[in-house]
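Sat 14:20. Reprocessing the chain from the morning session after the first attempt stalled halfway. Input below, unchanged.
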Amino acid sequence: LNMAARKLDTRAPYLAEMVRSELVDKFGEQAQYSGWRVYTTVRSDRQQFADEAVKRGLEAYDKRHGWRGAEAHDKPLKNFRVVGDLQPAKVTQVQSKSFKAVLLDGTEVTVPWSGMSWARKYINTNRVGNFPANASKIVKVKDIVRLRAQGDTEQRTWVLGQIPAAQGQLIALNPEDGALEAVVGGYDFADSKFNRSIQGWRQPGSAIKPFIYALALERGFSPQSPVSDAPLKVGK
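Finished this time. C-alpha cells:
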C-alpha cells in the first residue's frame, strides 16, 4: 500500500487509494501498517491501457480547443514537476520552425514544427485562432512549457503539450460478474486525488425522463398539458 516505499511494476494510484480506503473503513487505520496482502481483479495491462486512454483522450480534447499559452515565464524550472507524462521545460532558443528547451534533468531537446503546429490560439470554448505561421507565434525564450516524448530512445521526438483544463475518468467492469477491470479517476493522481470514477456525483441525464413522463401521464398529464417554467422557491 505504501507506493512511495517500493518500486512498482504498474502505477494505479486511484485503485490503490480505493483499496487503502476500504481497508481503513473495515479494519481501522492500523490496517495500513499491518502487512496486508490485497488482491484485486484488475490486470496490470488493462489498467495501463485505461490510464493511457484517459490521458491521450483528455490531451486530444484539450488540443482541439487551442493553445492557452506558456504555463509561466522566466520562473525557476525546479518549481515545476511532471504532470501526467508532460515534462516541464524552459525554452532556450526559438527558430522559425522549431525551438529548443531544457528539461528538469538539464537535457536540451528540440521540438520540431510537427510537434507544435497544432497550437492554434485558444479564444474561447467554441473558437480557436488560425494555425500559427512560425514558432515565435507559439513560444518565446524563458517560457515554461510542457513537452511529451514520442517514440523510443533512438527515434524519440518531442511534442508541445499542455496540462488539460478538462478532467475525465474511466471505470471498466466485467459484464459477466461485475468484477472491476480498470479504474482511472483523473488525469494525474498527484495533481488531483479526487476520484471521478467513484466520487463524482453526476446528473442523471435523459435516461431519467421516461420515469418522470410516465409518472406525469399516470397522474393525468398529457403531451398537450401546459407546465409553468416559472422559478420555484423552496423554503423560506
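The longest helix spans residues 44-64.
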